[in-house]
């Protein structure tokens, strides 16, 4: 197994799977086997027409020969493939060839969260991972998909710490294809399974929130809360034993964070956070209450004291981000002046975008620009057609990273109109295309006058409404 591979290796009979290396499944040429488990054998493959590597999961023959299983597998793959979200591994394709059933997914080369958990993580890092997982779950839950097997091994990491959830719906397929409904025999991973799932009861989004809470406990302490010799005993502990809070205290976890973990892992679903969005608010609030650094996309930036006529960059209203190192104990660092790398304009360092050309001042996110056309990175430009406080007509350029859009500080792009929600939408780049997703805003996000309820791919010249505020999207190119 190569360093950084993100799929667990398990002992077991993989049949003749090794013979696939060097052969092709559809347009994908198998390069190497990178993991094996009870559900599938996973290969790294190359797709020549797009010059990229992908991950291919090949079903074991005993599943592939079951027409009911294959039918459900295809149905679930189609549902999950619609979940275009920066914190969910994207499904590219699936098919059958020579009695082989397979699914093609985004290849992630940074390992899994499980690989990171050799010891307890720092509280801000742990919470950052959990918030990213919650963002992915929020998208799935809003599309009526419950993961059912949230655990560190299903949380893939890029090398920069960006987290993606994988294996949505696998547990559901297995549950529907078997008669395992007795206590302690539900399909999933007992160490992270909610009490109701362990009992074989119907589960909903709150079961995923419980599992994510156990993952957070693991991140903060370096171990799962309940350990036993059998899955049944672990399930009973999840049902009856209180969370060992003393382990969190021993690691120095602040009390506001402990309270969130306890609510996430409440025995009764009604006592937990009822949605991932509420969980995210609670986690960010607990970090603030603990005087700890916020994850990048939720940080509250210092308000710039140095103005520039007609500009709202770095203050509210406007567009802003927190520069690295600018927060210490929640206090903003003194403002300094920096020169835009592109046009030479002098700006306060509390601003992310240049007041003149709209480019990112430090060019720090340019390292995300891995997709290029004719040697030039594909970027996004958003131009305000409306907007208060002098934003109308201003244009801003974004790298191939996740851009959060909303009304309040802590977003990458701040649009102060009253019709814009506090957290409104998210823009990101994947596999050669730009995507936009509404994150549960009150007044909605429209693309070309059509309200969107899941992620959509943007085309050059699309008109976007964030509430009543109008923005034009264009594809542009870096140097």
UniProtKB/TrEMBL annotation:
Residues 28-284 form the Protein kinase domain. Gene3D superfamilies: 2.60.200.20, Phosphorylase Kinase, domain 1, Transferase(Phosphotransferase) domain 1. ATP binds at residue 57. It holds the Pfam family Pkinase. Signal peptide: none annotated. GO terms for molecular function: ATP binding; protein serine/threonine kinase activity. Residues 403-452 form the FHA domain. It catalyses: L-threonyl-[protein] + ATP = O-phospho-L-threonyl-[protein] + ADP + H(+); L-seryl-[protein] + ATP = O-phospho-L-seryl-[protein] + ADP + H(+). It comes from the Bacteria. Residues 309-331 are annotated as: Disordered. Residues 309-321 have a biased composition (Low complexity). This is non-specific serine/threonine protein kinase.
């Amino acid at each position: 197994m190569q360093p950084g591979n993100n799929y667990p290796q398990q002992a077991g009979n993989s049949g003749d799977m090794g013979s696939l290396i060097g052969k092709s499944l559809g347009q994908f040429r198998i390069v190497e086997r990178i993991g094996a488990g009870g559900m599938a054998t996973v290969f790294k493959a190359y797709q020549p027409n797009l010059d990229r590597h992908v991950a291919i999961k090949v079903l074991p023959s005993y599943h592939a020969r079951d027409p009911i299983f294959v039918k459900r597998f295809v149905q679930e793959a189609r549902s999950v493939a619609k979940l275009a979200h920066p914190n969910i591994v994207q499904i590219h394709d699936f098919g059958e060839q020579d009695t082989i059933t397979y699914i093609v997914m985004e290849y992630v080369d940074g390992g899994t969260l499980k690989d990171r958990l050799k010891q307890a993580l720092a509280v801000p890092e742990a919470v950052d991972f959990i918030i990213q997982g919650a963002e992915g779950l929020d998208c799935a839950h809003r599309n009526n998909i419950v993961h059912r097997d949230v655990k560190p091994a299903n949380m893939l990491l890029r090398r920069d710490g960006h987290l993606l959830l994988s294996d949505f719906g696998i547990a559901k397929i297995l549950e529907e294809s078997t008669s395992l409904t007795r206590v302690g025999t539900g399909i999933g991973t007992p160490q992270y399974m909610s009490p109701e799932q362990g009992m074989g009861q119907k589960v909903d989004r709150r079961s995923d929130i419980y599992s994510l809470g156990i993952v957070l406990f693991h991140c903060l302490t370096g171990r799962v809360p309940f350990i036993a010799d059998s899955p049944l005993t672990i399930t009973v502990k999840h049902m009856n034993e209180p969370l060992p809070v003393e382990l969190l205290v021993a690691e120095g976890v602040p009390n506001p964070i402990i309270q969130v973990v306890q609510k996430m892992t409440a025995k009764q679903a009604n006592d937990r956070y009822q949605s991932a969005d509420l969980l995210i608010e609670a986690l960010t609030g607990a970090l603030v209450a603990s005087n700890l650094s916020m994850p990048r996309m939720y940080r509250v930036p210092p308000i710039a004291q140095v103005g520039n006529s007609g500009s709202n960059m770095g203050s509210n209203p406007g567009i802003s981000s927190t520069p690295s190192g600018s927060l210490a104990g929640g206090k903003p660092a003194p403002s300094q002046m920096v020169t835009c790398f592109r046009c030479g304009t002098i700006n306060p360092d509390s601003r992310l975008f240049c007041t003149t050309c709209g480019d990112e001042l430090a060019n720090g996110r340019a390292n995300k620009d891995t997709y290029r056309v004719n040697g030039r990175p594909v970027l996004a430009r958003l131009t305000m057609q409306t907007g208060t406080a002098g934003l109308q007509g201003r244009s801003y350029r974004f790298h191939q990273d996740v851009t959060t859009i909303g009304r309040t500080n802590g977003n990458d792009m701040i649009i102060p109109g009253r019709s814009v929600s506090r957290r409104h939408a998210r823009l990101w780049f994947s596999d050669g295309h730009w995507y936009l997703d509404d994150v549960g805003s009150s007044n909605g996000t429209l693309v070309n006058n059509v309200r969107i309820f899941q992620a959509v791919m943007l085309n050059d010249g699309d008109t976007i409404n964030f509430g009543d505020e109008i923005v034009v999207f264009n594809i542009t190119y870096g140097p």
